[in-house]
Amino acid sequence: MISNRVKNFCLYVCMLVIPIAQAQLQDETEVQEFIGQMVAKHGFDRSQLINMFSQAKVSNTILEAISRPAEAMPWYKYRTIFIQDERIRLGAEFMNQNRDTLLAAEQQYGVPPEIITAIIGVETRYGKNAGNYKVIDSLATLGFKYPKRGEFFRSELEQFLLMTREQNLDPQSIKGSYAGAMGIPQFISSSFRNFAIDFDRDGHIDIWGNPADAIGSVANYFSKHGWVNGENIAAQATARGDRYKELIDTALEPNLTLKQISGYGVTIKTKHHPDKKARLLSYEMEKGEQLWLGFTNFYVITRYNHSALYAMAVYQLADAISHEQGNKDLYRND
Question: What is 239-275 written as a DSSP string?
């Protein structure tokens, strides 16, 4: 049995170690260089930044989470995370509750209500799970302790500090995902500064608690990334032989016309103009694969998350929500 004296000594040591561990971050050379750049480039107060980094915590949980993204799963497993009865039902409810705002966003930006809803559904279950990590901890951890993508996350940390200053927000109070994505639509800091909007015109942008601003911001994001109003998104395909495999790679942007793709033995289940460009995509099933053609709007969805799995989940969830609402499906011809 451990004596009370030993217990008290261990507690005392822990109390000493924790502040020292936290203080190490602001003293690191790379962090000091970052602080210097923020002061010189953007006029931040050095002492305030030092104080902020003294409070930031490096999190092993965040480092573990980014090392095992869901997008590493095969499609047949990934799909079950998002295409669920409850998420479909909640999506239909979200559309009913926000119908006027969604229709206004569609009218202004050309993005269908079910697509905007599905994005929010995949990201946060319609705002119900926006993340519990302090964004400053996420970005500091990944910016300075994750060399593989450190440059990107340091850039997002810069954008985060600019965003909080511009919006008069406390950097210590904002929470989000392990990767620093925030609010109902899970915008990263650079996306907030470039695409978030005050859609209800109440004088400030609130993607954390205001569905109207979240909806408008998603629609604006898609519009700015090239969404084509009224065009279809994807089409299921089949193939003869093995030559189609020459077209399968990790790229996402449409690269060949349907006429060219058909020359590889690929057949589409719906009718489309032969000069329409697409990208052939393969999705791993428990047995075999599914082939899909992703068009321009499918590629636009991947600008939100650069994953063919993610875009297909959004597309199929949107289609299921649309059916739940009693609307036509998204397998349109053109």
Answer: ESSSGGGGG-SS--S--EEHHHHHTTTEEESS---TT
